[in-house]
Amino acid sequence: MEPTLPRPGGGFATRAVQGAAIVPEVTQKPVGPAIWPSATWAMPTSADVGDLLTDGTPGYVYGRYDNPTATTLHGLVASLHEAPAAWASASGTAAIHSVMSVLKGSGRILSTSRLYGGTWALLQRLANESGWVVDHADLLTADDVRATLSDDHTLVYLETLANPSTAVADIAGMAEVCRERDVPLVVDNTFASPWLCRPYELGATAVVESATKYLAGHGDVVAGVVAADTDVIAAVRHHTFELGASLGPFEAWLVVRGIQTLPLRMRASGANALAVARTLAASDVVAGVRYPGLEDHPQHALANEMFGGRGHGGVLSFDLPDRVAAEGFADACRVFARAASLGGTHSLVLHPASTSHRQLDDAALRAAGLGPGTIRLAVGIEDEQDLLDDVQQALAAAADLR
Ligand SMILES: Cc1ncc(COP(=O)(O)O)c(C=O)c1O
Question: Is the whole-model pTM more than 0.70?
Answer without folding.
Answer: yes
